[in-house]
Design a protein that fits this description.
Layout (H helix, E strand, L loop, with lengths): L1 H13 L6 E5 L5 H10 L8 E4 H9 L2 E2 L2 H15 L7 H21 L3 H18 L9 H25 L2 E2 L1 H18 L3 E5 L6 H12 L3 E4 L2 E2 H4 L8 H7 L13 E2 L7 E7 L4 H4 L1 H6 L9 E5 L5 H7 L6 E3 L3 E2 L4 H18 L3 E3 H10 L4 H16 L4 E3 H8 L14 H15 L6 H21 L8 H13 L2 E2 L9 E4 L11 E5 L18 H6 L5 H17 L3 E7 L12 H9 L4 E6 L12 E2 L3 H10 L5 H9 L1 H9 L14 H19 L6 H9 L1 H11 L10 H26 L4 E18 L2 E15 L2 E8 L7 E3 L15 H14 L9 E7 L7 E3 L1 E4 L2 H16 L5 E2 L8
Parallel strand pairs: 1-2, 1-5, 3-4, 5-6, 7-8, 9-18, 9-19, 10-16, 10-17, 11-16, 17-18, 23-25, 24-27
Antiparallel strand pairs: 12-15, 13-14, 20-28, 21-22, 22-23, 25-26
Helix pairs in contact: 3-8, 4-5, 4-7, 5-8, 6-7, 8-9, 15-16, 15-21, 19-20, 20-21, 26-27, 26-32, 28-30, 28-31, 29-31, 32-33
Length: 897
C-alpha cells in the first residue's frame, strides 16, 4: 500500500508517538492496512484515532442523525398536520418524499440557503405558469408541479423546525449545523488531524479542513498524479486542481503529493466479452498469468454487485479470499419469498374468494420449511396439479394447507400490525431449522427490519396499508446487504470501486467497465433541473463523473497489470458500450493496450444422440412388455425410441403441470370423454333421428361430465381462452353428432356396438414359438349398413391412411413415424378380426379427426398389399424393439426454416 506507507513514514518522522494524530479517512476500509503497516514498522506505541469525515462532521454538529423509516414517518406526521392539498396518504407520500429528501440534503450541503433554492423553484414555476394559460384545472401537470413547490416552501421549513426541536437532523441539516460551529471548533480544539486521500469535499468539509489548516491543526495528504492533474481536460483531476489553489497551500505548506506513477510501464488489457456472467469465466485465465499464487497484491473490482455469486463460483481454487463488498439482500431467496407474501396480501385485498396458484407456489418453494411442512406442501402441489386448479378456493386452501406451520401468513391479514407480528414470529421459528449461513443471515436481517418497522410505527396513529408496509420493507431491504468475513490482509481482494479508496494493488481486474456502470451516466433521481443545480452549485452528473474518473485512474496509477473487462452484449439497460474511461486511456495515454475479444464459451449441447444398450435387465423388462403390447407403444417407439424406453422399460411418467390454458392433449380428452358419454347411452341401439337430436340438445351436460373426469374445476372454462376451447369442443361434438344424424336421415342403418372397447390377450406370432399379446382400447365400434367400423378419434389431422406395401418395402414400411396412424389402424383391424364376437364380419377401420369433424370417418385404404402384409411389417418393427443387439437410440429432431 504505497500511499498509506508514505503517510505513515511522514507521520513517524514528525512524531514517533502516533497517538497524537487523528487520522481522517474517506472510509474505514484502510484502517486495517494502516495497522498492518505499523506492525511492519515495529511500531509499539498507542494507535492514532481514526475517523471518517462524516463522523467528524457529526461530532461537531452534535445532532442526533435521523434517516430512513423513522424520518419518513415523522415527516409524514408534520405534512399531515399542515393540512396541505393534496392530502396524500402515507403510501402516496412515500412516492415523492424520499427523492425530495435527497434533493433537500443536497441543497443543505452545497447551497448557502435551502429556503432560497426552494423559493427559486417556486418562482420559476410561477413564471412558467404566467407565460402559459394553464386554466383552472389543478390536474394540469405544470399546475401540479407549481402546487408541489408551493407546498414544499411551507412543509420543508416546518419539518426542519420540528426536527430541530427534537435535536434531530438529516445528513444535510447536520452539515448546516456543523457549518456554524467549524470556526470555533478549529480555534479551540487541541487535537491534530490528518486528512488522507480525499478528492471531492462538500463545502462544509472543505471549510473544516481549511480552518484546521489555518490554525496549523491539520495536514492533508492527497494522492494525485501528473497524468490527470496537469491536464485541464482530464475530469479525474478536477477537484484536486481546485484544492491546489487553496491559499492555505503556500511556500510553508506544500500540496502533498503529486506523483508521476500513471506513466510508468504497465500491462493493460481490455477484454470485450460477449455476456455479463461470461466476464467471470475469464477470471481463471487471468489468475493463471499472475505469478504470486497467494494473490496477496491482487484486487478484483466488481462494478456490478450482481456478479459476486458468479465470480465466487469460478474462484473455488483460490485459498484465501476477502470479500469487502456486501451481497445485496434483495437478491436472495428469502427476500423473494417475502416480496411474494406481500404481493399475495395485495391480491387478497382485491379478490377475497380465491388464490391464483402462481401467487402461492413460489412462496411455498422459497420459504425455509421443516420436514413436516415439506410433506404438506408436496401433497398440496400433487392435488392442485392433478386437478389442474388454477384458482384455489379459500376452502380448499384451508383443507390442504391448514396444518402448515406458516399457514396464517397465507391468509388475508386483519391488520398490518398483526401481520408484522406474524412475520417476526415466523422468522424466529425458522432460524431453528437446518438452514445455511447465508439464509440464516437473510432471515435475521428481515426479522430486524420487521422489528424496526413495528417499533417505528408504534408512536403514530395513521393507518398503514399493506402496500405501504411493502414499500417500507422494500426500501429498508434494498439498502441492506449481507457482509462477508474474510482475511483482509491475505489473499485475493474482491471489492466494489468505492472500497478501493486509498488502497493500491499490483494487479487490478475490473469487471463491467461499461458506460452506465463507470461512470453511472447522466440519469439522476431528482426533482431539481440540471440548470438550477448548476446555478446553486449543487452536484450534477458531471461532478459524479469526475469523482468516478478519479477513483478509476487512482486505482490503476500504481498498478502494473490492469485487466479491464466489459460486456459487449446489449440487453436490458446494458447498451453493450465500453466505458468512456477505456476510450480515454486508448486515445490519450502512452501505454500500449492489448485488446482481446472473448466469445461466450457456452457451447451448444452436443447433438450426439442418447444410446441405451439392451442389457440383461432391459431384456427382462422387454419380455414382460411382450405380454401387453399396445399400438400406442409402437407409435411411441417410432416417434423416439428413448421415449419408449423411459415409459415402457423404466415405467416413468410425465409430471403433472398446471395448465392455465387447456393443452392440446386435454382438449382432445375433453372431446373424447364427452363423445364417450354421449354414445355410452346409445350403445347397443340402432340409432334413430330422435336419439341424436336429443344428444345434440344435451351436449353441455355431457361436457360437464367430461370436465369432472378430467378433474378440472368448472370455473376453469368460464373465461378467456378456455371458454373458447370449450365452445370449440362443443362445436366439434355437435359436428360428429350431426354427421351421424345425416347418415340416419339418409336411410343408413347405424348401430353403436361398443364404446372404449377394451381388448387384451390377442396373440400375434413373431414365429411359431414366439408371440406377443396385444391389448388396448378402441374408441368406437359401430355397424354401418352391415359393415363393422373400427373408429379411432384423433385431435390431429389425418395423415397417410393409404397403404402401399409390397415385397420391396414390406420389411420397413412401418419404420416411419409419418405412417403411425395407418400402423395403429392395421393393429386394430388384426385385433378385431381375431375377436370371436366379430368373426366373419366385413371390417373397415378409420380415423375421425376432431380437426376435420365434418368429414366424418376417413377409412384406411390398401392401394398395394393387404392386412397380412401390413402385419408382417408390424412384426419387423416389434422384432427390432426386441433385438438385443440393437440399442435404443434417440431420434434427434432437426429444425429447419
Amino acid at each position: 500500500m504505497k500511499f498509506l506507507n508514505k503517510i505513515i513514514r511522514e507521520l513517524l518522522d514528525q512524531n514517533p508517538d502516533l497517538s497524537e494524530f487523528n487520522i481522517v479517512l474517506p472510509g474505514k476500509r484502510p484502517i486495517v492496512f494502516i495497522r498492518q503497516i505499523l506492525e511492519e514498522n515495529n511500531y509499539s506505541g498507542f494507535l492514532p484515532n481514526f475517523f471518517t469525515v462524516e463522523e467528524l462532521i457529526d461530532r461537531i454538529a452534535d445532532k442526533q442523525p435521523v434517516q430512513g423509516i423513522s424520518l419518513w414517518l415523522f415527516a409524514f406526521e408534520v405534512y399531515r398536520n399542515l393540512g396541505l392539498i393534496p392530502r396524500d396518504d402515507f403510501s402516496d407520500f412515500l412516492k415523492w418524499f424520499p427523492t425530495l429528501q435527497k434533493d433537500w440534503d443536497d441543497i443543505l450541503k452545497f447551497s448557502e440557503s435551502d429556503e432560497a433554492v426552494l423559493q427559486y423553484m417556486f418562482d420559476e414555476e410561477r413564471i412558467k405558469e404566467w407565460a402559459q394559460d394553464l386554466g383552472e384545472d389543478d390536474d394540469v401537470p405544470r399546475k401540479k408541479f407549481l402546487n408541489f413547490w408551493q407546498n414544499m416552501n411551507i412543509f420543508l421549513p416546518e419539518l426542519k423546525k420540528k426536527l430541530q426541536e427534537k435535536n434531530w437532523a438529516t445528513s444535510g441539516m447536520i452539515h448546516e449545523a456543523a457549518k456554524e460551529k467549524i470556526a470555533g471548533f478549529a480555534e479551540n480544539t487541541s487535537e491534530h488531524f490528518v486528512f488522507c486521500g480525499f478528492n471531492a469535499f462538500t463545502p462544509v468539509e472543505e471549510k473544516l479542513v481549511r480552518s484546521l489548516l489555518r490554525w496549523n491543526k491539520a495536514q492533508c495528504f492527497f494522492q494525485a498524479d501528473r497524468y490527470y492533474f496537469d491536464d485541464e481536460k482530464q475530469e479525474a483531476g478536477k477537484f484536486l486542481r481546485n484544492h491546489k489553489t487553496w491559499k492555505e497551500f503556500d511556500d510553508n505548506r506544500a500540496f502533498q503529493w503529486i506523483e508521476n506513477d500513471f506513466n510508468q510501464p504497465k500491462n493493460i488489457k481490455v477484454y470485450e466479452v460477449s455476456g455479463n456472467v461470461t466476464q467471470t469465466k475469464v477470471l481463471p485465465e487471468i489468475f493463471s498469468g499472475i505469478e504470486n499464487k497467494t494473490y496477496s497484491n491482487t484486487a478484483v473490482v466488481l462494478l456490478d454487485e450482481n456478479l459476486l455469486p458468479a465470480s465466487l463460483d469460478v474462484m473455488y481454487g483460490v485459498e484465501n479470499l476477502n470479500i469487502t463488498m456486501g451481497f445485496p439482500l434483495k437478491n436472495l431467496s428469502f427476500s423473494n419469498a417475502v416480496k411474494q407474501l406481500f404481493y399475495l396480501q395485495k391480491q387478497l385485498e382485491k379478490n377475497r374468494s380465491s388464490y391464483y396458484y402462481r401467487d402461492i407456489f413460489p412462496i411455498l418453494e422459497e420459504l425455509p420449511k421443516s420436514a413436516e411442512d415439506e410433506l404438506i406442501i408436496s401433497n398440496f402441489r400433487t392435488k392442485v396439479e392433478e386437478r389442474n386448479i388454477v384458482y384455489i378456493s379459500k376452502k380448499l386452501l384451508e383443507e390442504l394447507l391448514s396444518d402448515l406451520s406458516y399457514y396464517d401468513l397465507l391468509k388475508k391479514a386483519d391488520h398490518t400490525g398483526v401481520y408484522l407480528d406474524q412475520l417476526i414470529d415466523f422468522c424466529k421459528r425458522i432460524k431453528w431449522l437446518e438452514i445455511d449461513d447465508i439464509q440464516y443471515e437473510n432471515v435475521s436481517h428481515f426479522e430486524t427490519a420487521f422489528r424496526i418497522i413495528k417499533n417505528q410505527l408504534s408512536p403514530y396513529d395513521f393507518v398503514i396499508k399493506m402496500e405501504t408496509l411493502e414499500i417500507l420493507i422494500n426500501q429498508h431491504v434494498n439498502s441492506e446487504s449481507i457482509d462477508f468475513q474474510g482475511e483482509p490482509l491475505r489473499g485475493l481482494q474482491i471489492m466494489g470501486l468505492l472500497e478501493t479508496r486509498l488502497l493500491n494493488f499490483e494487479n487490478v481486474i475490473m469487471l463491467s467497465v461499461n458506460e452506465g456502470k463507470l461512470p453511472l451516466g447522466n440519469s439522476q433521481n431528482t426533482y431539481i433541473p440540471f440548470d438550477i443545480r448548476r446555478y446553486f452549485d449543487l452536484h450534477t452528473f458531471l461532478e459524479n463523473d469526475s469523482i468516478y474518473a478519479y477513483h478509476f485512474y487512482r486505482l490503476i496509477q500504481d498498478s502494473q497489470n490492469v485487466h479491464l473487462l466489459y460486456n459487449a452484449l446489449s440487453s436490458g439497460v446494458n447498451t453493450g458500450e465500453k466505458s468512456r474511461f477505456i476510450t480515454q486511456i486508448e486515445m490519450e495515454s502512452s501505454h500500449p493496450i492489448e485488446h482481446l475479444i472473448i466469445e461466450n464459451s457456452s457451447e451448444p449441447i452436443a447433438s450426439m444422440p442418447i444410446e441405451i444398450p439392451k442389457t440383461e435387465i432391459v431384456q427382462e423388462r422387454l419380455l414382460k412388455w411382450k405380454e401387453k403390447v399396445s399400438a400406442s407403444h409402437l407409435t411411441s417407439y417410432l416417434y423416439n425410441p428413448i421415449d419408449f424406453y423411459l415409459s415402457k422399460i423404466l415405467k416413468t411418467s410425465e409430471t403433472d403441470e398446471i395448465e392455465e390454458e387447456l393443452s392440446v392433449k386435454n382438449y382432445g380428452n375433453l372431446v373424447h370423454y364427452s363423445l364417450q358419454e354421449v354414445y355410452e347411452i346409445l350403445k347397443g341401439k340402432v340409432l334413430k333421428e330422435k336419439d341424436l337430436q336429443n344428444s345434440i340438445k344435451d351436449i353441455d351436460q355431457y361436457i360437464n361430465v367430461a370436465i369432472e373426469k378430467l378433474k378440472h374445476q368448472p370455473e376453469f372454462y368460464e373465461k378467456g381462452m378456455n371458454y373458447i376451447h370449450r365452445a370449440i369442443a362443443k362445436k366439434v361434438i355437435e359436428n360428429v353428432l350431426t354427421h351421424d344424424l345425416e347418415l340416419v336421415k339418409s336411410g343408413n342403418s347405424l348401430e353403436i356396438l361398443d364404446i372404449e372397447k377394451r381388448f387384451e390377450n390377442v396373440d400375434f406370432y413373431l414365429d411359431p414359438n414366439d408371440k406377443i399379446s396385444f391389448f388396448g382400447f378402441i374408441d368406437r365400434i359401430d355397424r354401418l349398413n352391415g359393415t363393422l367400423r373400427i373408429i379411432d378419434y384423433k385431435t390431429a389431422k389425418i395423415k397417410n391412411l393409404t397403404v402401399k406395401i409390397d415385397e420391396n418395402n414390406i420389411d420397413d414400411y412401418f419404420h416411419n413415424s409419418e405412417r403411425k396412424q395407418a400402423l395403429q389402424l392395421c393393429i386394430y383391424h388384426y385385433v378385431v378380426q381375431n375377436l370371436p364376437e366379430f368373426w366373419g364380419l366385413p371390417i373397415e377401420t378409420g380415423i375421425w379427426s376432431f380437426a376435420e369433424a365434418k368429414k366424418g370417418v376417413v377409412s384406411l385404404q390398401f392401394d398395394k398389399g393387404n392386412i397380412d402384409d401390413a402385419m408382417e411389417s408390424v412384426k419387423n418393427l416389434i422384432l427390432e424393439i426386441l433385438n438385443p443387439d440393437l440399442s435404443f437410440i434417440e431420434n434427434i429432431k432437426s429444425y429447419s426454416n
